[in-house]
Amino acid sequence: MTCHPTALVSPEAELAADVVIGPFAVLEGPVKLAAGVKIGGHAWICGDTSLGAGTCVGWGSVIGAPPQDLGFDPAVRSGVRIGARNVIREYVTIHRGSKAGGYTTLGEDNYVMTGVHLGHDSQVGDGNVIANNVMFGGHVRLGNRAFLGGGGGYHQFLHIGDLAMVQGNASVSQDVPPYCVAYGSNHLAGLNTVGLRRAGFDPAARAEIKKLYGLLFGSGLALRKALAAAAGMEWSPAAMRMLEAVAKPSRKGVIAGG
Fold first, then answer.
1. Tens of pLDDT along 151-180?
2. Active-site amino acid positions
3. Do the Cβ atoms of 188 and 258 come closer than 8 Å?
4. Fold entry, domain 2-139
């Protein structure tokens, strides 16, 4: 283990033999760091927080701090779970869960850029790119392989689907369906066709997703009627993921148009 002499490491911490801890970093409480984890200078990792193998945490980041919830009881036991091979850049904040036994989670292979805030109880999947200064309220759920442009704000409890793309500086307070491109204040711009192709969706699958998107959001039907029409048709598993996300949204509802 490489630990700078100015770092403060709790005796409760469980550290793999090859972790690297930078100057003035603080590991407070029963923190768990797996093999190959690197913690940058002045970072603060605290409480019931675990970091998977190969994850790197940038300078000044704070992971595991109490949630920004006026009704939160500091005696509640909750934490943060972070998977393998994540890049978490400078000054990122990831707060612990707000309820007993609750966890804020980050999957694997995510790239989380400078200044991002992941609010309490948020659930982030794998392979996402979250650009600078994106802000998640509590309980946001993000799927896999999405791209979120810098400066975007995301209201609590909403869902963002797999392979979604959201423009920078967006203000999002409703669900972004899988495969969709969103911008501004709850607007859809179409499908993330480049992302679908790069993810290995063949032309037939992309065409079917495009057909479903057109029915749901471009047919002129009220969303309720469009969903009823789509429910009577056969869809591939990939298209069904979009249909199910729209049919069963979060409590915030789904973005339904341009």
1. 999 999 999 999 999 999 999 999 999 999
2. 120-121, 138
3. yes
4. UDP N-Acetylglucosamine Acyltransferase; domain 1 (2.160.10)
